[in-house]
Amino acid sequence: GYYMAPSGDGGDGETVTVEVNPFEGKTIQIGSVVASTAGLETAVPLYEDIIAADMNDYLDKMDYDASVEFLIDTADGQAAIHLEKVQSFKAMDVTIFMGGGWSSQAQAALSYVNDNDMLMISSSSTSPLLAIENDNLFRTCPTDFVQAPAISNMWKSWGCEAILIVQRGDSWADGIYNVLLPELEAQGIEVIERVRYAAEVTEFSSYLATMDELLGDAIAEYGVERVGVQTMYFDEGVVLMSQTGDYPNTRAVVWMGTESSGRSQRMIDDGGGMQIATGGFSSLMTPAKSWKWIDLDDRYYDLVAQPASFYTSTDYDGATCLALSVLEAGSVDAVDVAPLWPSVPRNYFGTSGWVDLDDAGDRKPGIFDIWGFTADGFTSYGQYNGIEISVAWDDAALSANGFSRPGPP
Predict the structure, then answer these.
(1) Judging by DSSP bridges, how do beta strands 66-74 and 349-350 pair with one another?
(2) Which of the 8 DSSP states describes residue 363?
(3) Fewest CB within a 10 Å sphere: which of 94, 168, 194, 241?
């Protein structure tokens, strides 16, 4: 920061050292690798028109002659490409960045990040496999250690006795599966089958045919109201859902997902309405309802015609904390910035609430809304308390949208 020297020569004739703004006249460059090309549609306006705009307004008010710029690129949905983009940042002497949006991407880049003194902040990677102390990855969202008890308790309180799991084949989904399986067993819920597909798949007919047959057998044994489908997918889930029309058993049972899948705007736009009957319920941590969240939600909607999600707020808070860390360190070098994590976010109340990180550098859990689809969008169908480990369904909302929860047998 700026410090004013006393008038004169300091009184004793000695030289007075005056600290000046290390960023004076400079542009602070921070990298950003967006997980997929489709994500650029919302990420670019979020970073350029909201996050960078807010930081530059802050710098103006602080009388800093400096600006913040995010160097935005995309991993095209591929872990290998994400690593290439990280390496490109390093070649440009950009060692701090927002990235690792998908856990597979974060995992593929982590060794390089650690070995090359870089700092990676992820707003949406949730794999438990990456909950590692003393590394250079910090995550402003909770891990899927939280998802496992949430999912199992949602199924148990719904009244389901058997579920089929369909998942993409990557470290993110594998991580959820590994921590979810013992939770389901503890709740007495049978896993009918695990259907695992390559992340690059765009044609799901063979998988859906298998699912339909397995679900038919389970429905005959348990009853349709006691059987369900648990999903672990990203954007390709929209394609999968749009192809379920010829497989009646897949459409006869309730579906549950992970994180933000139950309020996916892309599913609403491109799912062909197929998602409505399935519910698609998922738990997503609830941002603290502060003026910061309301302001972000309003501005984001004005820009992209979509409501902000929890991950919009973790993106905002992660990037903002990274920029604030640069100012506090007086440097854009990860060697200087990384030691300030997690203390900077732990002392920051952002658009998502307190950005409190645990010893592994991951967001601590709180209260989660249970989202699901309606005839014209999505709504909240209840809450999962990640502190008390309990589920409260809104049966009135379920009934109003054509769902009937049988309850535990």
Answers:
(1) unpaired
(2) B
(3) 194
For the entire predicted model, the pTM comes to 0.76
Measured in degrees and rounded to the nearest 5, phi and psi for residue 379 equal -150, 170
The pLDDT value recorded for residue 4 is 37
Same domain, 71 and 89: yes
CA distance 370 to 210: 28
> Residue 297's domain is classified under what CATH number?
3.40.50.2300
If asked whether residues 235 and 188 sit together in one domain, one would say yes
d(CA 137, CA 149): 24
Q: Examine the domain organization and report whether 70 and 207 are in the same domain.
A: no
Q: Tokens 């880049």 correspond to what residue?
A: 109
Helical H runs in 118-194? 144-158, 171-186
Residue 94 within any structural domain of the chain = yes
In a domain, 5, yes or no: no
Residues 294 and 330 placed together within one structural domain of the fold: yes
User: Do residue 149 and residue 253 come from a single domain?
Assistant: yes
Bond from prior residue into 342 cis (ω within 30 degrees of 0): yes
**Do residues 327 and 262 share a domain?**
no
Q: Give yes or no for a contact between 88 and 95, defined as CB atoms under 8 angstroms apart.
A: no
Residue 403's SS3 state is: coil
What is the block-wise mean pLDDT of the chain (409 residues), using blocks of 10 residues?
A: 43 63 94 96 98 98 96 97 99 99 96 99 92 98 91 98 96 88 97 96 96 98 98 93 97 93 90 94 91 98 94 98 98 98 97 96 93 95 93 98 94
Domain that holds residue 42: 26-122+288-351
